[in-house]
Write a structure and sequence with these properties.
- Chains A, B: It is found in: Cytoplasm.
- Two copies of one chain form a homodimer.
- With 176 residues, chain A is an alpha/beta fold.
- The first copy, chain A, contains five helices and five strands; from the N terminus they run βββαβαβααα.
- In chain A, strands 3-2-1-4-5 form a five-stranded mixed beta sheet.
- Chains A and B meet through helix 1 and helix 2 of A and helix 1 and helix 2 of B.
């Protein structure tokens, strides 16, 4: 099984978490890169989107991920900031599509369940598991960076589960 | 007073209205271009955003607007489609910023009030006024195209009002 390099993006305008993880199921995962893209809140919204696009484009060109995993944004909570979050996630998807890289969305509870076993885990628990799974000395800071890594890990594991399921279905079909 | 060329964008993923109007207050306005960018709803979201970006970029390069006026998206209504609308508006802002073109947001009621005199006007009323103000033979179709033209008209008129206010304030200060 080929190793997968996944860029996780926790979308946001003030802080956009980016984390790259490489690996596959059943083997220890490797941290490739982690960081946060910030844009000043007093800057024009259009210019903030442009800065975010340039930063994400630079990361994609430099790191060449196989997949970009983006947190699925819901409109029901945090109405004040959700528009900016939706726009930031759109920029991340756009940059991936421009480079021909597939995009996958994962919900916050899917991510939490993947890395902690519980879809209701808190941020500290997610950060603790990311630290352990990637064998880091300390939890990545800020929380957005840890969340981006959790997204990437979630993608590697969920993708594998989906692949196993698809393989099982195909095998069952072939056996008939 | 220099004539202003405004690109109005009524953001959407399935249909994104684009309309370019040129003119200034007190003179008849001119229609430069109008249309709708469509992306197939069965296409991957990231690829829809990429198609929209390319279409808008092509329009901006070809028409060189002085300003891009985008409808301000609210998260409270139409929760199902609002995320796509927010992302489409983000793409429009991004494209403008990339070309160094200023972006201005106008709310739907500001647009309606500007072209019909009432912030509660319906779509037919807006389309009728756009048709009259631009001296067209028939209302632009679909409604998204008419809305985009209304946004551009709104921008030209609101901008002028804001400029007059600023000039009056400056004059009052100078007279003291």
């Amino acid at each position: 099984m080929r190793s997968l390099r996944v860029l996780g993006v926790d979308p946001g305008l003030t802080r956009c978490g980016v984390g790259i993880v490489e690996g596959f199921v059943g083997r220890p995962l490797d941290l490739v890169d982690v960081g946060v893209v910030r844009t000043p809140s007093d800057l024009d919204l259009a210019k903030r989107l442009l800065r975010l696009e340039r930063a994400l484009d630079e990361i994609v060109v430099r790191q060449r991920p196989d997949v970009v995993a983006v947190e699925r944004v819901f409109s029901q909570h945090n109405v004040r900031t959700v528009m900016g979050t939706a726009q930031a996630s759109g920029i991340a998807m756009l940059v991936a599509a421009r480079h021909g890289i597939p995009v996958q969305l994962h919900t916050p509870s899917e991510v939490k369940a993947a890395v902690t076993g519980s879809g209701r885990a808190d941020k500290a628990q997610v950060a603790a598991m990311v630290t352990r799974l990637l064998r880091l000395d300390a939890p990545p800071k800020p929380a957005d960076a840890a969340d981006a890594l959790a997204l990437a890990i979630c993608h590697i594991w969920r993708g594998a589960a989906q692949n196993r399921l698809a393989a099982a279905v195909a095998a069952a079909g072939a056996a008939r």
